[in-house]
Design a protein that fits this description.
globular
């Protein structure tokens, strides 16, 4: 390679070529004020265009792009005089030669790594590129050096290569060269720096917690690390630093944070990664409001510094119950409204038997649960009004409604009922030749009496109660379990938001009327426990160390379903951005929580004794939160996948196409760890089954 670079140069020159052509400026720094300067650029050929004897070369590095020009009609002597330079040109060991420069230029291809020396000159006015920071200038080349060559690319490196994700991950080092990926990784670095800057300014210590820890039940499978020194024993990689940050509060550090790596061995689903990063935070002598205010301050600082955006000083707050009833999810996107409304009073007054049956079944289930000491909500009939102005000029068709029904059924709904508001609700009744107020779908069941047209008092009550107007579409989900009615219709709401671009356009459907690019909301007052019907037992809704609110301590054992925890989630644009809680610091209260979920004292001591033992030595009241760094940067960058903001992510099957992990290891390593691989095991059969269920492009069916 060295001989190709300098065919006439002595060997001593080979080790010194970067000293001859080390960059003096970056590819993003030159401006009109630099005209006349001689500069050296190092970078990659982003694009090359040949026009007769003139070649235009876009050189790229992480700082930007500069256009260079190789014009063999300009004499080498003229270039030397213009730059007052001397020495090598196309070849450091050869005399000045336009032919040599032209020959090297002709060889250049995309992603060749090169060094170039030249003179900065202004672009002609007609050639100025306002979209480039360096768009007013170009560099007239007088010396060129190929530092390394590139084979043909598997995909083009640009803003929109169109390459499949698997190919991008296979050649991630190339994908990371793109301007878009460089921009997103830079944003990640700047966000992490801003977090550290703000947290240390608020008196927090950054403290590292162990990567090798004891395996404890935290909701997902642990990644286990076998110990060579202790055969048959394992370390676990932390799912979070939860127990250690609580111990740091017992240790008196008062304010801790860490940009922490976390690991969870979860089934492939959605946008999960087996390893991820969170901004882990814990504080002593605080209440919930202190932690929420601190987090609001952190987010305000990060968004102001990195995006120049002023966030509200205080974010909206919704209780878990309010969020589920109004939006059908505890992760609502508040950039648009479309609230869920209670349709049960109209269902009871109407004549649609399916709705009545659902409410009756729900009441029966509620009473049965109550007899067993379990609180339940009963049935629910929920409605969503899709305004005509949001739908646009063309009302929703039956096919589009059926697509919405598919979404509802994914979330366990039996169906999606609907009816439309006639475009002329003030018209006379149907018998007088006018249009009915309600039409289509289940509208015929909502006349004042069975068989009446849906244009009487009941129909008008429905319109008034729901706030529906001419041309609006009313969507309804009913289920004997209120939670299913809420979540299914909430999923329909989310799909409407995506399909109609409501997050960008807002409820009125007019550009620019959205409720903000970033809509934060706190979800508070979560249930502390949830009942596992399959296993017939209570389990922690979040984790076992969350503090039950004071007013529920008396009924902790007698009515676990009623207990609210001091839990809180921060939601941004429909994504859970952070989760946290006030922690239990009283050993006796912790034992009571263990008892509710069926963990006896001996088991609790075995699993968590090192933490509960510490609580016996004057543990302070404390609490914390852990925003996800990957998801935060993803949302700030306007992306929908955390893979776009992680340098080397895994694919959807927790594999790395680039380096081929997970991979088999040598038998010697297994022997040292006292591990035997059982071939043909159930796990291997399951893996084979998963492979058989994949499509030809590697995706499982149904994703």
């Amino acid at each position: 390679m060295e001989g190709k670079l300098f065919p006439h140069a002595p060997p001593a020159l080979y080790s010194n070529y970067m000293e001859l052509m080390k960059r003096t400026v970056t590819c993003g720094s030159l401006r009109k004020a630099d005209v006349g300067k001689t500069v050296i650029l190092n970078g990659w050929v982003n694009r090359k265009r040949d026009h007769g004897g003139i070649s235009f070369i876009n050189l790229r590095d992480r700082y930007g792009i500069t256009q260079a020009v190789v014009d063999t009609s300009v004499s080498m002597e003229a270039l030397a005089e213009a730059s007052a330079g001397a020495g090598a040109y196309a070849d450091p060991a050869a005399p000045p030669s336009a032919a040599a420069l032209a020959a090297l230029t002709a060889e250049l291809r995309n992603e060749y790594c090169v060094a170039m020396e030249g003179v900065v000159r202004p672009r002609p006015p007609s050639m100025v590129n306002p979209d480039m920071a360096t768009g007013e200038i170009e560099v007239l080349a007088r010396r060129l050096m190929i530092l390394s060559r590139s084979e043909p690319l598997p995909f083009q490196i640009d803003e929109d290569s169109g390459a499949r994700e698997e190919l991008r991950l296979r050649y991630r080092y190339l994908d990371l060269r793109s301007t878009a990926m460089q921009r997103r990784i830079r944003l990640r670095s700047e966000v992490a720096f801003a977090v550290r800057e703000w947290m240390t300014g608020q008196g927090f210590y950054e403290i590292e917690t162990p990567t090798f820890i004891r395996s404890t039940p935290e909701g997902a499978r642990d990644y286990l690390v076998p110990s060579r020194l202790y055969p048959g024993k394992f370390y676990a990689l932390p799912q979070s630093p939860q127990l250690y940050k609580q111990l740091l509060m017992v240790s008196g550090f008062d304010r801790y944070f860490q940009i922490a790596r976390c690991y969870r061995d979860e089934d492939a689903r959605g946008d999960r990664q087996p390893e991820f990063t969170q901004i882990d935070i814990e504080m002593s002598f605080v209440s919930r409001d202190d932690i929420l205010a601190m987090t609001e301050g952190l987010m305000g600082y990060v968004f102001k510094k990195n995006l120049g955006l002023e966030l509200p000083a205080c974010f909206t707050r919704l209780s878990f119950e309010e969020a589920m009833e109004r939006y059908g999810t505890d992760k609502p996107d508040l950039r648009f409204d479309l609230p869920l409304q209670d349709f049960a009073p109209y269902a009871e007054a109407g004549h649609f038997q399916a709705f009545k049956d659902v409410l009756a079944a729900g009441e029966a289930e509620r009473q049965a649960a109550a007899a067993g000491g379990i609180g339940a909500k009963g049935g629910g009939v929920k409605a969503l009004v899709l305004p005509a102005e949001v739908m646009g000029k063309t009302p929703y068709s039956r096919k589009q409604i059926e697509e919405l029904e598919v979404q509802a059924k994914i979330h366990k709904a039996r169906g999606l009922a609907w009816m439309k508001v006639a475009s002329s609700p003030s018209a006379p009744a149907e018998g007088d030749g006018g249009l009915p107020i309600l039409e289509g779908g289940v509208a015929k069941f909502f006349g004042d009496t069975a068989g009446d047209p849906p244009s009487g008092d009941l129909a008008r009550r429905i319109l008034g109660g729901l706030g529906a107007g001419p041309g609006d579409l009313i969507l309804i989900v009913a289920d004997s379990k209120r939670r299913i009615a809420n979540t299914a219709l909430g999923a329909v709401r989310s799909k409407l938001g995506r399909d109609l671009g409501l997050a960008e356009n807002g409820p009125s459907g007019e550009p620019g009327t959205g409720q903000g690019r970033f809509a934060f909301v706190w979800i508070v007052d979560f249930p502390l426990f949830e009942f596992n019907e399959e296993e017939n037992r209570w389990e922690a809704a979040h984790h076992l160390f969350s503090y039950p609110q004071e007013q529920y301590h008396a009924v902790l054992e007698s009515d676990p379903g009623a207990v609210k925890g001091d839990l809180y989630d921060l939601v941004l644009n429909g994504y859970e951005l952070a989760s946290g809680s006030i922690r239990i610091h009283d050993p006796d209260l912790q034992k009571r929580v263990f008892s509710v979920v069926g963990i006896d004292p001996a088991e609790a001591e075995k699993k968590f004794g090192f933490l509960t033992g510490a609580f016996k030595f004057g543990a302070p009241p404390h609490g914390g939160i852990a925003p996800g760094l990957d998801r935060l940067v993803m949302l700030m960058a306007g992306e929908t996948s955390i893979k776009e903001v992680i340098a080397f992510p895994k694919n959807s099957f927790a594999e790395s196409p680039m380096d081929g992990c997970p991979n088999e290891v040598e038998q010697k390593q297994l022997d040292e760890l006292h591990i035997i691989i059982k071939r043909g095991s159930a796990s291997e059969s399951e893996t084979q089954g998963n492979q058989n269920n994949r499509n030809t492009d590697g995706r499982p069916h149904g994703l």
